[in-house]
Structure formats: structure tokens, C-alpha cells
Amino acid sequence: MVKKLEQIKGRAWVFGNNVDTDQIIQGRYLTLLDYAEMAKHAFEIPRPEFSTAVKKNDIIIAGRNFGGGSSREEAPQILVKTGVGCVVAESFARIFYRNGFNVGLPLMTVPKVTSVVRDGMKITVDLSEGTLRVDETGEVLKGDALPKMMLDLLRAGGAVPWFRQQK
Q1: What is the spatial distance between Cα 55 and Cα 142, in angstroms, rounded to a whole number?
Q2: Can you name the CATH fold of 8-165?
Q3: pLDDT tens for residues 13-53?
Q4: How far is residue 75's CA from residue 19's CA, in Å, rounded to a whole number?
């Protein structure tokens, strides 16, 4: 499956600092063994409305250390299942950052993004340029553009599909 990543347009869901994997998906739901079922419980404690209100390509905006805690791949995988287009944060926990790309979840770092973007704003993220534009105001924030290799990995749908394409 090849994804188009030129630009991701969506509605912002804003979170604060230190959103850990247990806030994304509580450990008690890991026994479900079905990502679609787990996704129904995404952000159940901090944002109970998330799983029923999130739309395809909505964008999570977060502060520092998004995805800290356990190294479980279920956290980024259920975000993919909810239809989240990407996660933009001021910084990511290292293992979550790697797991996100492994499962095909686009991630981008943008300093001070939470001081500009508010819940519900329409935004456009360009991963190859490393920019986030607030559609209502036209304000553009500069982040870290993704290297071609990471874009190729995302276009393939994650690490496993990318490796299969290399044969």
C-alpha cells in the first residue's frame, strides 16, 4: 500500500506534555488483541470523546515527550486504526518515535506548536517540508522535515511493508 504524504490536512486534537502510552491506550485493553477494538478506547481517560469523534486525517498536537512510558507498539498502531493522519509534537519519547514509523504513523517535531495550535483548528502538515500551517490564520510553523528514507517507510505503510518491497 503506497500512501500519499505530500500534505496532511485535518483538525487538531491538542494534548499537553508527557502524554504516555497508557494515556493513549490503557494496558487493560491490550488483551483484546484486535487493533480496531483497542482503538475504541484511545485516549479514554484524558479525552473520552476521542475515539467516537476523531475523523480520518485528524492531527494530534502535543507538547514535550509524547509517547513516553512503555515501548508497546499498540499505542501508535491504534492511532493508525483511528484514522489519525499524523502526530505533531514538541518532542517524542524515543521508542514511540521509532515505533510510530515502524507501523506507518507519520510523526513530526515542531517547537512550541502547543502555543499556537488550539483544539479544533484546521491545519495542514507537510512532512517533506517540515511545516505546519494553521489554515484559519495562515501562520506557518517550521519543524523538522523528514528524510527521504522515513518518507519512503511511511509511504510503504511501515517497516514490514517497506522491507517486503526491497526484494
Answers
A1: 25
A2: Aconitase; domain 4 (3.20.19)
A3: 999 999 999 999 999 998 998 999 999 999 999 999 999 99
A4: 11
